[in-house]
Amino acid sequence: MASIVSTAGFISCGGLNRSSGRSSTTFGTQLAYPLSSSFGGGCSRRLKPAVVVVRAEAQHINPEIRKGEEKVVDTVLVPELSKPLTVYCRCWRSGTFPLCDGSHVKHNKATGDNVGPLLVKKQ
User: Fold this and answer.
1) Strands 16-17, 22-24: parallel, antiparallel or unpaired by DSSP?
2) I need a surface site. Which of 18, 78, 110, 113 has the fewest CB within 10 A?
3) Using the 8-state DSSP alphabet, how is residue 49 labeled?
4) Which of 93, 95, 96, 91 is nearest to 118 (CA)?
5) Active-site residue, selected from the candidate residues 71, 106, 109, 121
6) How far is CA 63 from CA 60, 72, 87, 111, in A?
7) pLDDT tens across 65-114, in order?
8) Any idea where the Iron-binding zinc finger CDGSH type domain is (predicted)?
9) Number of C-beta neighbours around residue 35 at 10 A
């Protein structure tokens, strides 16, 4: 399990961005409401820096379908296609989504999963 620790920084209260009419933080993030304890446009206190911890765990995309197979690949035959073969992603990790770029191979090695693409062939 990987963890990412990030410091959000001090939030500047009462600093209105005149072009948008929104409050802004010291990192330039635009918020739709003023960050103040009083709604008079200014802050009576500064907020402390915040630390955000995000944990990411690799999980199986395919928890129970055909687990006896090394890689689950299905083929659908469609007579109305213009191309002879189109390969669609089912792992949700493809850089060319919805088309498959082979990213499932890396995912399967990292998680022990067996997800594979959907092949749509012209009949």
Assistant:
1) antiparallel
2) 18
3) P
4) 91
5) 71
6) 6, 12, 22, 11
7) 888 988 999 999 999 999 999 999 999 999 999 999 999 999 999 999 99
8) 71-110
9) 16
